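Weekly structure sync, notes
Attendees: PL (lead), two postdocs, one rotation student
Agenda item 3: pending single-chain targets
PL asked that the sequence for the first pending target be pasted directly into the notes so everyone works from the same version. It is reproduced below exactly as submitted, 256 residues in total.
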Amino acid sequence: MIRNIFIVIVVVLWYGAAFAAHPLITDDAGTQGAGKSQVEINGEYGHEEEDEVTEDTVETATIFSYGINDDMDIVLGIPYQYIRTEDSEEPVEEDGLSDMSIEMKWRFYEKDGLGFVLKPGITLPTGDEEKGLGSGRASYGLVFITTKEAEPLSFHFNLGYTRNAYKLEEDEEANRKDIWHVSLASELQIIEKLSAVANIGVEKNSDRESDTNPAFILAGVVYSVMENFDVDLGVKAGLNKPETDSALLAGMAVRF
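Predicted structure, written out during the meeting:
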């Protein structure tokens, strides 16, 4: 138990799916710029209680972004998961690498603080599907992103679609393949180095047994320690039963 608590504390304090302006779930229309790079280390600790079953999850991701040109980035996400499920029987723990992602972020329009982006991507079956850490097959998706900046405020909207594939027959039968996502976020610059962020979103429930789509709300802050180094902290809450009850998010980003 002490070991598990230590792991959770370390991950949440120092670490944190490839999202811009973490802790936001919603991506923005910003790109790195030609020849520039960014490394993000993000983490999320989630807690869920349902039908006398408690599940604690720690998800971390290391995300590398590189600017091919001023309007196009390539993004590589390397996620890791720790899952602890506890009921009336002995607790079950699983951990390991999840499915990696490769995305291309293309900003095709930018004028007067308004930007439009298309972000296609694929996930690779690098996670162990037997442990529930991956799907076992490659999947693909596309996100439309728009950002409107009106200092000191900015707004971001995402509309996404993912086509999931599954290797295990039981996963194939239990999960929907076609998943959509809609979310809206805002950022407010409070002072020169500190911004407050808020986020709300909903996506199609992957569970075939449920017609209620998970919805969340999130609030957090982003602090620029230096010009090219940010840290962030956020709290996410579920708005309905299918969404994780509560989650703590933390992360950092370095640009060079």
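Discussion points:
- Helices lie at 2-14, 169-174.
- The longest helix spans residues 2-14.
Action: rotation student to compare against the earlier draft before next sync.
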